[in-house]
Amino acid sequence: MAKEEKKPKVYHTPTKLEDTANIDYSTYYMTKQEIILYTAIGCAVMFVLGYIFYRSIIVSILFALLGFKYPEIKTKEIISSRQKKISYQFKDMLYAMQSAVSSGTSVENAVTMALEEMKKQYADPNTIIIKELELMVNRISVGTNIEEVFADFAARTHNEDVFTFSNIFEISKRTGGNIVEIMRESTSVISEKIEVKGEIDTKLAGRKSEGKVMVAMPILLIFFMSKTTGEFMEPVFTTFTGRIAATVSLALIIVGALWMNKITDIEV
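The structure assignment produced for this chain is given below.
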């Protein structure tokens, strides 16, 4: 049995058509520079956190080792952010295509017109939807079926909204449905769903910011008290009971942070 050919890693937003064709938006490969940067940030933050609560270089170094997990956490954040961008940009693409199809243009030509519209709307030529539309136009020009083009885009984005449109479009082409009406209805439903997601994300962003402030406040309070109250906080860092109290406090802060992150991490 032939081995499955491995696609090359694409580290950032692709700049070439072959890179675009190989990218999988459910993954993100950090460069060595990014790994070093985010590891350094994570280690520095954890070192400072350990020192604030324990005033011990050894304990702080042990805490700093946890920073090596930060690139993994940051990777997940980047993937999530990229998925949101894909949804919003895909919505704009649908509106452009629907407008073109409604004026009597074929779907294949509507893709080209959507590309020109996206270039006007987004200043960065490396915007995801622009690179994807360039790949679509290229594939259509060499005879690839439009259904296959959308199906490939959906498979690489792993985006529910793109999957929905791709499936609806494939069925409508196969059954000979009214493309104009189907495009109009699909665009309306999918765009409304994406807009609702956007509203929820906006509200959650405020709650997440509040959560970060609530987590940071007790840490900053301990730091300022240890700096301004002289020997008042000394027992916390030098006695067994004080270290137990510091550990319990830190544990409660971490549990609270994880809990707040969990309740604000809503999949729509």
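Interim note for the steering committee: Residues 17-264 form one domain. The first helix runs from residue 17 to 22.
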